[in-house]
């Protein structure tokens, strides 16, 4: 019994020393961000989604290098051409394709010949581009001799443009507009929602009435008005940033209201009262105490907002009031698949839609994982 008591006393003393943070102790605090990482890693689907999204963003960054053809190049000889047939006859290559006109049905058909394939050139020269918009280059991951034919991995559209190359380039707009738009909306929603919840009174009433007015504006007529006002020859970059800003200005209201509710619960906490008694200004209390406590909720909501913003751009571009030609986005590409008669004959035009589904699903799974990780009660 005595030995047991001594062991218990020594254990309690060792625990007290560990809690006090002595240098010899092996017990210490785990930072909050490490706890979040541990909880996030438990979600296998969220981790897999991160890997897939990182891969897709790398593909978007190196889209010109990975594209064997110029995405804007029109080729009448490949109008609605089916995906290239690959062969290993004598080495990696694609089958030759010859365009023929059916005089009976007045339609275009393609005859494939794999006996004399076209060789694939790895890291070969092709159309010129600027990597990251700065570095001039003309090397591509794989190409073919243009004098012999073209490689169309996912087939071609009605103008003979390579769907594979256009899908890769479309990811640069569709996948980044969500990140940029949500970043702006998150900053607006977090700051305005925190000020509204902390200030209360007249300030809170004014902010909430403004939020209600913005939320009452019908989105589709707003976009239709924007499409009518903006000139059709507006540069792609300018239109991209206009869409990003407008998406941000109509999506921050939901987050602002949620943050307001969180902050109203924190505003009467003891640490806020202590900071106020110590003479801290309202801005200091908001920036030092209130917003950091709402960060976990802000991050979770922002992650779940990214797929909604990407889907909004795709939908608006699909109906012709978002990004327009010559811009390349997944919504613009899906306009070619809007006719059921065309889609029945050329199903490869739906490839950009598959990319949208993959990205939206991964972001939703990632958002669920982040929400569970930042939840202090999980």
Describe the structure.
The protein contains 14 helices and seven strands. The chain is elongated. The relative contact order is 0.12. Strands 1-2-3 form a three-stranded antiparallel beta sheet, with no helix packed on it. The protein is mainly α. Strand 2 and strand 3 form a beta hairpin. The two termini are 40 Å apart. The chain folds into two domains: 89 residues, no CATH class; 207 residues, MetI-like (MetI-like fold, Orthogonal Bundle). Helix 2 packs across helix 14, helix 3 packs across helix 14 and helix 11 packs antiparallel against helix 14.
Topology summary:
Layout (H helix, E strand, L loop, with lengths): L1 H19 L11 H10 L2 H18 L1 H4 L19 E2 L5 E10 L4 E13 L1 E2 L2 E7 L3 E5 L2 E2 L19 H37 L1 H16 L2 H11 L6 H31 L3 H8 L4 H12 L1 H24 L11 H5 L5 H6 L5 H24 L4
Antiparallel strand pairs: 1-2, 2-3, 4-7, 5-6
Helix pairs in contact: 2-14, 3-5, 3-14, 5-6, 5-8, 5-10, 5-11, 5-14, 6-8, 8-11, 9-10, 11-14
Write out key terms for the chains shown.
single chain, about 375 residues, mainly alpha, MetI-like fold, 2 domains, 3-stranded antiparallel β-sheet, two-stranded antiparallel ribbon, disordered N terminus
Query: What is the name of the CATH architecture of the largest domain?
Result: Orthogonal Bundle
What's the order of the H and E elements? HHHHEEEEEEEHHHHHHHHHH
Tally the structural domains. Answer: 2
How many beta-strand runs?
A: 7
Shape: elongated
